[in-house]
Amino acid sequence: MTGSRRRLGRRFFARPAVEVAPDLLGRLLVREMSSGRRLSGRIVETEAYEQSDPASHSYRGRTERNGVMFGGPGLLYVYFTYGMHFCMNVVTGPEGVGSAVLLRAVEPLDGIDLMARRRSTRDLRLLCAGPARMCQAFGVARRQNGLDLVAGSEMHIEAGIPAQETDIAAGSRVGVRDGVGRDWRFRLRDDEFVSRARPGMPATRTPR
């Protein structure tokens, strides 16, 4: 059961990233293809990034690369990393403040055959377990940077069935060198579709 297909509105995203990130768990990420195909996945893992956070792209202020992060709540911020991967984020907070939530993993629901062709694997657990894999499966790249997830037609996030607080675990973000003391990675506890943490990462805990 995937829950409500009602789109999340602007007010949902107009909050600090650390509030939006756990609240996105259980929601549905949706892309409507020009062919009429619907791709969707249940969000199972996120990471929060605030402007005051030294690990955030916005920490040193607005640039050409990170401009979308300052554009207002509900926009899609897509960036290219390691010269080979795209990652997508949901912009949060008020316009002019650079905060966002990185979408790390989803459970594939609709359009699995298309996702599998793009990812060259039939293993459901590997289709969208990680931000780069998810972008590849959903066909998200530089052209989608700046899309409006609230008023746009190409991509949006639906209400789904939000996760209960007791089902959410929090821990250190992946691949972060600065701001390591923040437990701003949120995931559904014991979910098979989350990305796999690297050995040596701190254990996760349930948020209070």
Give a brief description.
With 208 residues, the chain is of the alpha+beta class. Helices cover 15% and strands 28% of the residues. Strands 1, 2, 3, 4, 5, 6, 7, 8 and 9 form a nine-stranded antiparallel beta sheet that branches.
Output the keywords.
alpha+beta; nine-stranded antiparallel beta sheet; disordered C terminus
SSE map:
Elements: E1 4-7, H1 10-13, H2 17-23, E2 28-32, E3 38-49, E4 76-81, E5 85-91, E6 100-110, H3 112-119, H4 124-127, H5 131-138, E7 155-160, E8 168-171, E9 185-188
Antiparallel strand pairs: 1-7, 2-3, 2-7, 3-6, 3-9, 4-5, 5-6, 8-9
Helix pairs in contact: 3-5
Secondary structure: helix percent = 10-25%
**Net shape:** globular
Number of helices: 5
Biggest beta sheet attributes? 9 strands, antiparallel
Using only C-alpha atoms, the radius of gyration works out to 16 Å
Number of strands: 9
Residue windows where pLDDT falls under 50 for at least 5 positions = 198-208
Distance between the termini: 27 Å
Write up what this structure looks like.
With 208 residues, this protein is an alpha+beta fold. Helices cover 15% and strands 28% of the residues. The protein has five helices and nine strands. It has helices at residues 10-13, 17-23, 112-119, 124-127, 131-138, and strands at 4-7, 28-32, 38-49, 76-81, 85-91, 100-110, 155-160, 168-171, 185-188. Strands 1, 2, 3, 4, 5, 6, 7, 8 and 9 form a nine-stranded antiparallel sheet that branches. Strand 2 (28-32) and strand 3 form a beta hairpin. Helix 3 packs across helix 5 (131-138). The chain is globular, with a radius of gyration of 16 Å.
